[in-house]
Design goal:
Blueprint: H1 3-27, E1 43-49, H2 54-69, E2 78-84, H3 108-118, E3 123-127, H4 128-133, E4 147-150, H5 153-162, E5 166-168
Parallel strand pairs: 1-2, 1-5, 2-3, 3-4
Helix pairs in contact: 2-3
Length: 171
């Protein structure tokens, strides 16, 4: 094979591989191994959200905002992660249709508040077991970069605690 043909083949393979990777990532939520999360700030907390009441989720978001305000909203001073499972995933779904919460009102305002926290470095990890047990398609998870799936919400909470994250639960 000539150098020119080899280069054309390699370029074609690279382009095809990139297209497949982009297609795969566009359709699937990001899955995170909690063991890879590092405590890279002096202050790091995991907020545990296994509840679905809008007022309680709203209070948790307010608490996180207050928490970060003490550190001047500086992501180099404090890291906050929310682990959501059970009804706690509701605000992070594109739609509640086909879920146990289909009759609930949309959680658009809470989702917007989560997006504001994400601008401050907050990440949200959603439990894959919740999706499986409730027969919810994981593709219903919103596609924002701050939202990732973890194999188990409670296992992620425990893993983060062993890595130095303090545990916080509202209510």
């Amino acid at each position: 094979m000539t150098d020119m043909r080899r280069r054309d083949v390699l370029t074609g393979l690279a382009v095809a591989g990139g297209a497949l990777a982009a297609q795969a990532s566009a359709g699937e939520a990001r899955v995170l191994d909690p063991k890879t999360v590092k405590k890279d700030t002096e202050i790091a907390c995991v907020y545990h959200c296994d509840f679905g009441e809008p007022a309680r989720i709203g209070q948790m978001i307010t608490n996180i905002d207050n928490h970060l305000s003490v550190y001047d909203y500086d992501p180099f001073k404090a890291k906050v992660v929310v682990v959501a499972h059970g009804a706690g995933i509701k605000p992070l779904l594109d739609s509640l249709e086909g879920t146990p919460w289909a009759k609930d009102a949309p959680y658009t305002a809470l989702y917007e508040r989560y997006k504001n926290l994400a601008r401050l470095g907050v990440e949200v990890y959603l439990c894959q077991i919740t999706f499986k047990r409730n027969k919810i398609d994981p593709a219903k998870a919103r596609k924002d970069d701050f939202i990732k799936l973890v194999p188990s919400g409670v296992a992620a909470v425990g893993e983060l605690q062993t890595r130095g994250f303090s545990y916080v639960k509202v209510g």
